[in-house]
Amino acid sequence: MLKEYKSVVEVVGPLMTVEGVEGVTYEELVDIELQNGEKRRGRVIEVNGDKAMVQIFEGSAGINLKETKVRFLGRPLELGVSPDMIGRVFDGLGQPIDNGPKIIPEKKLDINGMPINPASRDYPSEFIQTGISTIDGLNTLVRGQKLPIFSGSGLPHNNVAAQIARQAKVLGSGEKFAVVFAAMGITFEEAQFFIDDFTETGAIDRAVLFVNLADDPAIERLATPKMALTCAEYLAFDLGMHVLVILTDMTNYAEALREVSAARKEVPGRRGYPGYLYTDLSTIYERAGKIKGKPGSITQIPILTMPEDDITHPIPDLTGYITEGQIILSRELYKQGIEPPINAIPSLSRLKDKGIGKGKTREDHADTMNQIYAGYTSGKDAKELAVILGESALSDSDKAFAKFATKFEEKYVNQGYYTNRTIEDTLNTGWDLLKIIPRSELKRISDKLLDKYLSGGGVEN
User: Fold this and answer.
1) Are 159 and 239 in contact (CB under 8 A)?
2) Which end of the chain is less congested by CB atoms within 10 angstroms, N or C?
3) Maximal C-alpha separation, the chain
């Protein structure tokens, strides 16, 4: 029988302290009944002797210390999962908000999940096609990888997220694929953009959306990515699906973590974030992966906005340590009107070599990827040199590289948000651009591949 306590001694922000408790455990779910009969939910975040600290999901406004009743439910926060979740929209705590029927769960799962045993992890090695050339061609995403997108305030990361969610697929027949999309701390307009875009393009038919708005409680924001990943783990490891999880915006998640940490009077770390920010982020990112002997996989694309475009800020800095690379959006390309404004030079996928090549994408992928990257960096250097010394100071090969860099941004990067390129389209576009560069300068591609693919004229001026 559950005990009921009327011994609330303190409320600070979203936190409430209850004393005289017995048998209470960390992460336990709590029912809170206010003096007017209103009911709220919370979870235990600290136990010290006979005192328990509770995070209240809906906020603490209107709580009367003497009249409030608290019940500890003896179980953690859970998500009821079912195949019927696909095509539905939920709030940050897993409640349907799309006017559809309630989900009848097949099972209830602890949202904190379990880490994948390293010995049972399967190495990521299979290609996922996003339809975006800069990712597929140069920074390839593979199943089971975690590849974040680093953006800045005002940059169109929402458009990129929606494009990936619409277009991403695993190549091959009979593969079951789903997208789990979690939005944290976004505005109502942004939420409506995602819901409308998914609905109009039909992407909703294979997607599950979890939406936490900016005016929703910070505590709910902390639960949202865990809800999404719990749903993804069910789809991947119980139903055998390949699941792409998109989390936006992890900066809002970290801000909520800092807010709660400050309310707990914890000693702050860098820039006021709690010292356990790295550990907390790792509990989210490390839930991506493949398990040996199971057909499903979870691939993660966390999206975060870098405050003041600072890549050394604690959130992108720690994210970079945990994940396998990063895709970086460029403010300079955005100002040029290039869509999506992905900067290929600092972007990196550490597992790209494992997911490309003959039988996965195409035999020429690795060589063309290296040559395009080298050509683009050489072209950018040549353009900078022309600004300082004048174009007359450039050699013929420098001029060719400079032209290549310009055409690369115009034709390869600037594909728009609604153009879905196959990997063959991306590779062929790359070959068209490489025709600008003299064959003698294409030193990263074998003669055999040059003879096979390098034919015809260059791209239009």
Assistant:
1) no
2) N
3) 86
All residues at 6 or more sequence positions from 423 whose CB lies less than 8 Å from its CB, including other chains: 127, 129, 136, 137, 171, 361, 362, 365
Give the side-chain half-sphere CA count within 13 A for 422. 8
Cα distances from 160 to residues 44, 324, 456, in angstroms, run 37, 19, 33
Tens-digit pLDDT profile for residues 153-210: 999 999 999 999 999 988 775 678 999 999 999 999 999 999 999 999 888 999 999 9
Examine the pLDDT at 115 and tell me if it is beyond 80.
Answer: no
Q: What angle separates helix 396-407 from helix 423-434, to the nearest 10 degrees?
A: 150
Instruction: Between 114 and 163, name the one with better pLDDT.
Output: 163
> Would you state the torsion angle of the CA atoms of residues 9, 15, 20, 25, taken in this order, to the nearest 10 degrees?
180
Check: CB of residue 253 under 8 Å from CB of residue 184: yes
Query: What is d(CA 329, CA 155) in angstroms, rounded to the nearest whole number?
Result: 7
d(CA 170, CA 214) in angstroms, rounded, equals 33
pLDDT over threshold 50, residue 69: yes
Q: What are the φ/ψ torsions at residue 53 (nearest 5 degrees)?
A: -100, 130
Q: What is the pTM of this model?
A: 0.91
Nearest residue to 387 (alpha-carbon basis) of 405, 402, 372, 401: 402
Handedness of CA 422, 302, 90, 105 (dihedral sign): positive
DSSP state of 406: H
> Which of 428 and 176 is assigned the larger pLDDT?
428
pLDDT at 169: 87
User: Is the bond into 340 cis (omega within 30 degrees of 0)?
Assistant: yes
DSSP class per residue in 392-405? GGS-HHHHHHHHHH
Comparing CA positions, the residue from 432, 427, 381, 429 lying closest to residue 405 is: 381
* Residue 113 pLDDT > 90: no
Task: Pick the closest to residue 345 from 307, 313, 384 (CA basis).
Answer: 384
Q: CB-based contacts of 334: which residues, under 8 Å, 6+ apart?
A: 155, 156, 341
Mean pLDDT of 114-125: 86
CB atoms within 10 A of CB 346: 11
pLDDT, position 234:
95
Judged by phi (left if over 0) then psi (alpha if -120 to 50, else beta), residue 356 lies in beta
448's enclosing H/E stretch is helix 447-453
**Residue 457: what pLDDT?**
45
What is the β-pairing status of strands 242-248 and 297-306? parallel
Rounded to an integer, what distance in angstroms lies between the CA atom of residue 29 and that of residue 42? 6
